[in-house]
Amino acid sequence: MSTMRTLWTSAKANPVFMRRLNGWLTIFWIMMIPVSVATGWVKSVVYVSALSLWALVSGHWSAWQAARVEVHQDDDADVAEVLDEIRQLRAELARPNSPLPDSGPRKAMRLV
């Protein structure tokens, strides 16, 4: 069980693998449509229930993955904003005869 959990954890962290897995599962379920109709499985309550549960799980999983991507994008945007501020501060300090910004501990040091 521990091996399966480790394998699943590493698979979830690999976006290429997850994209391929979801692509193949999509193709599988598309191919199952005519098979389900031909065999009469669509008239089975058990089959339709299992299919509905799969749809529910996969839909929530997709929404969760999308939310994770948005969180990472927000984090990246925050980091980019801080990096821009650092670059601007460095450029300001690199200019000859530029006054130091009046904020933070430097302001306190100049007053002393």
Task: Please provide a brief summary of the model.
The chain is mainly α and 112 residues long. It contains four helices and no strands. The protein has two domains: 42 residues; 52 residues.
Number of helices: 4
Structural Rg: 27 Å
**Oligomer category:** single chain
Structural class: mainly alpha
Largest sheet: none
Q: What does this protein look like?
A:
The protein is mainly alpha-helical. It has two domains: about 40 residues; about 50 residues. The protein is built from four helices and no strands. The longest helix has about 50 residues. It starts with a helix and ends with a helix. The mean pLDDT is about 80.
Keywords, separated by commas or semicolons:
112 residues; 2 domains; 4 helices; mainly alpha
Secondary-structure topology with pairs:
Elements: H1 2-12, H2 15-39, H3 45-94, H4 105-111
